[in-house]
Amino acid sequence: MTPTHSRNVKNVLEDLSAQPDTGLDDGEVRRRQKEHGRNRLKEVETASPWRILADQFKSLVIAILAGAAIVSFAMSEIVQMLAILAAILLNAVIGFFTEWKAVRSMEALRSLGTVQTRVRRGGQSATVDAETLVPGDIVLLEAGDVVTADLRLIESNGLTCDEAALTGESVPVSKTSDAVDKDAPLAERGSMAFKGTAVTDGSGTGVVVEIGMNTELGSIAQMTTEAEQETSPLEKRLDRLGRNLVVLTLLVAAVVAFLGVLGGRDIVPMLETAVALAVAAVPEGLPIVATVALARGMWQMAQRNALVERLAAVETLGSTSVIFADKTGTLTQNRMRVARLVLPSEDKDISWEDDDRPEAPPELACRLLEVAALCNNAELDKDTEGGGADAGPEDEDAGERPAGTGDPMEIALLHAAAAVDIRRDKLLEEQPEEREVSFDAETKMMATFHKAASGFRVAVKGAPEAVLEISTHIVTREGETETLADRGRDEWAERVEALAGQGYRVLAFAERQVDSPDTDPYGDLTLLGLVGLADPPRSDVAQAIEQCQRAGIAVIMVTGDQPVTAAAIARDVGLADDPRAIVGNDLPQTDGDQDEDKQGNLLEYQVFARVSPEQKLGLIRHWQDSGAVVAMTGDGVNDAPALKKADVGIAMGQRGTDVAREAADIVLKDDAFPTIIVAIEQGRTIFENIRRFIVYLLSGNLGEVLAVGLCAAIGAPLPLLPLQILFINLVLDVFPALALGVGGSPADIMDRPPREAKEPILTRRHWIATGLWGALIAASVMTVFFVALWQDMGQDAAVTIGFLAFALARLWHVFNMRDAGTGVIRNSVVQNRWVWYAIALSAVLVAAAAWLPGLTTVLGVVPLDLSGWMLVLGGSLVPLVVGQTVLSLVPRAQP
């Protein structure tokens, strides 16, 4: 069978029963979906319940416990063996359910990130879920899109695609609607656009020929047996911390066992004690709690419109010190509307607001708006009435898509034209489009060719400086043309500057007549005038920026807009009272070869305007070299390299291109700048919570190691039995640690400076605090243990007092995890409802250990009298009282 890429496009359309002008109707789409299925690749097999359960037994800690159980069985200690096996099973059950929930949460998160594609169905263009595409669908492509199925191209307007994902070639490939040789290799099939590739320039239309696993990308996916699972730097550091603790505690356990044998104790009990000590020192709940903390934090971000695509971004967010923010849609409402028209024949600007728009606009205004409608890729909804120039929804700051499809700026131009009954569809019937020269970042212009009564009419729009530079004529009041002199250009440049200074985005429009559509559009142009588009700042951005500045995070505007316009918006949103702006052409080279003073001066600017993609990369690199952790927002295909280069790439979910979203670490579903602040706050909170519960686990475990180790060293009775240690660490500790791991944000989390990027999980002060907490708990419990022995309560009663005092001391110890300098009652730990649930559950478990028949026998717990319980309460409460006193007196530590 002749391959699709070498067949005539007309024959391909006939075989698929597809109409390029109207597309498929809804009924036919549903029928084909039943026949061909969903347009998606074979999903990576998710972890089954059995696999998750089996993974719970692949721990070094579990192996140590299993060894202890084997030793117990060999010594005929059946009850002890069963207790250890029960502890292993309980640990596995807790780990299973928490990881199962985390896995399902992550799957739900991924389901939020569906890819959209623009199609023509039922005679209208619409944006649909890419998974609903079927063979025969007509797909519309623009720069920045990700191709979502294998397409046979019907039309190509300067269309180029990055096919590196398939071919390995990094140079974009030019596309055409003409058939190519049937033996052409994949990289030379210019008549095709393949699923998973990116449109880098131009526009085009294609018909879907293959979907899902039948695409070229699907063939490659078929060869992949399993996806590589991402491991974040935080997870790696946690794993390294766990391994180091295992090695350390095995050494400690060996020393304790050796000292015990030297002290005359039996080898087997000391061996069991040594194993229990190893378990006591290693925070076996750490991976469980870390998984839950990360998964829950990422889920909360998603609930607040920040979809985390890469786990590593969660950790990096807490260190972010600089945000490079785009202007349009991020700091502004992205509600573009035409507000001013500047015509050569008018002495002053024409207001185009709804209230004061002229009822009978000048003829030249209509001529300009015709060009604006022709040189345009957007489409208005068919039921949109031409009664307003506002491209956005009615409610303030609404992030909904306007009443049309395409770029908001182009939709605004269509609305303005429709307001005076100039409709693009009617214009194209009279002046069919023959050719489009897509917007180019180098020329900063776009052009379209249209059939006219004689020759072709060329409609041009672009940046004012670019259009003014190549315009040779200007239209007069009578509709004639005259030469545009240099003096006239200077006057127009001043008008552009005045509009931009008022915060308007300015576009220039021009036209020319040519004999052939192959003519260069950018020459001998006649200037028609300027359009000022308004995009007001979001009402909540100023507060968010003030919050950033309070948190030690610098916000810098990087935009393709004019510097005066960008500076006006920067002033309105509070970036600075007098923001310093610099244009891309004035930027020094950022390759390290320039004067260091010039490089340093860049840090003083708040606005970078008219910057190229290469300059964005240079700016990010410069700030990173200065020690900053950089977050970058972007929405276009040209932003993708910068999004990848930044420490945290943040793409827009509504107006962002698919290429930008693929390159980003985080996608904002509402395109709102305040959502970035929410994500940073959540990232800081997650890291603080993980740090908090690690200190909690390690300090409590250290207290046990110190108590048992010191008693073994001096030949005294041990204050804890092996099974008691297992009960405390594998049963009681996990629940308070989980509560700390899912705690809310401290009230001052965004008043603290950013954390250093290379700062370890536990700094020197955290290790010191861990040691002091552990020593305090050990000293308190050992004191009541020796008091019980001194009062001749008996060794069994003394051990019971030591066990219960340890259990309760570690339970109350959770309140010592509040930040120094915070209130005893008003702090993030006390106000965490999960902490109270954990304490209630753990208290029930302690009561069961003290009084439940059977369990008391296994744990070696005996009944206590009033004096015994007084010692238990005293030994457990002293660390809490001392800790709360110290935390209230010590000033708050700076991160």
Write structural notes for this entry.
The protein contains 30 helices and 26 strands. Strands 10, 11, 14, 15, 16, 17, 18, 19 and 20 form a nine-stranded mixed sheet that branches. The two termini are 68 Å apart. Helix 5 (78-111) runs parallel beside helix 24. It folds into four domains: 4-39 and 117-223, Distorted Sandwich (Calcium-transporting ATPase, cytoplasmic transduction domain A); 284-301 and 683-889, Calcium-transporting ATPase, transmembrane domain; 306-332 and 538-671, Rossmann fold (3-Layer(aba) Sandwich), CATH 3.40.50.1000; 340-534, Calcium-transporting ATPase, cytoplasmic domain N (3-Layer(aba) Sandwich). Helix 19 links the parallel strand 22 and strand 23. The chain has 895 residues and is α+β, with helices and mostly antiparallel strands.
Defining key terms:
895 residues, alpha+beta, Calcium-transporting ATPase, cytoplasmic transduction domain A, Calcium-transporting ATPase, transmembrane domain, Rossmann fold, 8-stranded mixed beta sheet
